[in-house]
Predict the 3D structure of the following.
Amino acid sequence: MGQPATWQDHDEHPLTAETLQALFDNDIPVVRIKNFASADECADFAAAIQWGIDNDIMRYYSVKPRVGYIGTAQVEYRWGHERDAYFVAVKQAWEDWHKVVARTWDPQERLMQTLREVSGHDARIAEEPGHGKLFSGIIRKASNGIGRHVDYAPINTPDYAISAIDGQLGWNLFVESPGEGGVTTIHNRPWNVTPEEGKDTPMSYGLDDSHVAGAESVSYAPVTGDVVLFNSRNPHEVSAGAPGGGDRLQIGSFIGRLPGGDMVLWS
Ligand SMILES: O=C(O)CCC(=O)C(=O)O
Ligand SMILES: [Fe+2]
C-alpha cells in the first residue's frame, strides 16, 4: 500500500451530487443534511419508538455497550446462521418496524427520495435473488454508545448480492439526542482484509487502537432533526451520552453504491 489515505478536508458538507460521490470514494469525511426533519416530526417519531419500547418490540444486540433496536441487522447473521435464518428474521423485523412507523412517518422513504433527486440515480431497498428484500431502516436507542467497528458488505457479507457494491455509507436521522456526548468518531483507515473462502468473515466489531493508529479522524455530534452520512468502511465508534441528557434515538441504514451508480439500502 502507498501513502495512508487523507480526506480533502475535515468539514461537514451539505448533500449534493458531488459530495455524495466524494463520500462513497472516501474523499471527504461527513455529509450532514441539516433540518431533514422538523422538531414536531422528530418528537412524533420518538414517541412511536417509545411506544415500541413499552410494547416490547425493542430488542438488544449481543454486544456491549447495550444497544436497543427495532428491526434486524444483517451482520448479526454472518456467523453460524443459514441464510434462511436471516430471512426469517427479516420478515419479523419488517412486521415490528411497520407497527412503529405506521404510527408516525417514514424517514427512510424521504431519504431515498432525497438521494434520487440529488444523484439522478435510483435508491431502493436491497434484494437478494430468491429471497426478496433485506431489512432496512433499523431504529436504535444507542444512548450508551457503540463500540468501534466497520461496516462493509464486500468483506462482511461476501456471499450476498450486496457484496457487489463498490462503496458503503451509513446514514442516521437523530430524532432525540443527548445534550452532551453521543459523538461519533470516524477514522480514515478503510477496512481492507481479504475474506478467506470457506472461513468465517473477519471480526469487524470491537476493534482496538491498533486498527486506527496513525489515521486522521473526524467526530460529529448528533443533532435532533439532522441526517448524518459517513463512509462506514472506516472504523467508527459512538461515545456514551452524558447522563441526565436526552436519549440517542435514531433511524438509519447502509447505502451501497452499485457499479453504474444506483444505490441499495439495508441494515
Ligand atoms: O449512530 C451513529 O452515529 C453511527 C452508528 C453506526 O455505527 C452506523 O450507522 O453504522
Ligand atoms: Fe456502524
Q: What stands out?
A: DSSP finds five helices and 16 strands in the chain. Residues 12-266 form a domain with the Jelly Rolls fold (CATH 2.60.120.620). Residues 142, 146, 151, 170, 172, 184, 232, 236, 238, 250, 252 surround 2-oxoglutaric acid (ligand 1) (CB under 6 Å).
